[in-house]
Amino acid sequence: MGRVNNLDLEALAKSREAVERGEAPIEKVFAAEGEWLFSDEGLFKGKIEYPGGVVEIISDQPPQSGGYGKHPNPVQFCVFSMIACYATTFMTLAAMKGVNIKKFKIKGGSVANMKAIMEIEEGPVIKEVFVEVEVESDADEEVIRGLIEEANKKCPAAYTVQNAVPFKANLNYRKA
């Protein structure tokens, strides 16, 4: 099978078959953890574990938002995660369909309503989320458009943004 678009098709096929046969979990929790910082290092430090190890990430806010401006803000991490998820979904779908992509670039963002964030007015804090992809391939444009439509539905990040996914905030409180 080999690799298509830098993805191991054999590994993808084996994973799919294991889920299909009930030999692998049908649900997977993706998790991270972190804590608020009380120093000028930034505002929040977290860690994410993955098969190859652990990575620590620090987020901050720009000075005008009360931070130090030393690291990306949480929304930037969210946007990065979204475009990385979308790119992975698109390229995986293309690889599984045998569509060779020669070049793939993506940019994305979210439009924040600063008046709502700063409690000046009521309204949604995020007005829009978007991605823009640049694709170079020998495949016909309609094939690529079909992959975009499928990625819009199957990308976990895009799905979360487009659908009312239940959100819970649990509290573990200790009086200081």
Look at the structure and give the mean pLDDT: 96
- For this structure, what is the CATH class of the largest domain? Alpha Beta
How big is the Rg?
20 Å
Main β-sheet, spatial strand arrangement: 3-4-5
Please mark out the parts with pLDDT under 50 across 5 or more consecutive residues, or reply none. Answer: none
CATH T-level fold name of the largest domain: GMP Synthetase, Chain A, domain 3
Element order, helices and strands?
Answer: EEHEEEHEHEHH
The fraction of residues assigned to DSSP E strands is: 25-35%
Topology, number of strands: 7
* Helical run tally: 5
The CATH H-level homologous superfamily of the largest domain: K homology (KH) domain
N-to-C CA distance:
58 Å
Class by helix and strand content? Answer: alpha+beta
Main sheet summary: 3 strands, antiparallel
- The CATH architecture category of the largest domain equals 2-Layer Sandwich
Specify the oligomeric state.
Answer: single chain
What does this structure look like?
The chain has about 180 residues and is of the alpha+beta class. About 35% of the residues lie in helices and about 30% in strands. It is built from 5 helices and 7 strands; from the N terminus they run ββαβββαβαβαα. It is globular. The chain starts with a strand and ends in a 14-residue tail after the last helix.
Describe the secondary structure blueprint for this structure.
Elements: E1 3-4, E2 7-8, H1 9-20, E3 33-39, E4 42-50, E5 53-59, H2 74-96, E6 101-112, H3 114-117, E7 126-137, H4 141-154, H5 156-162
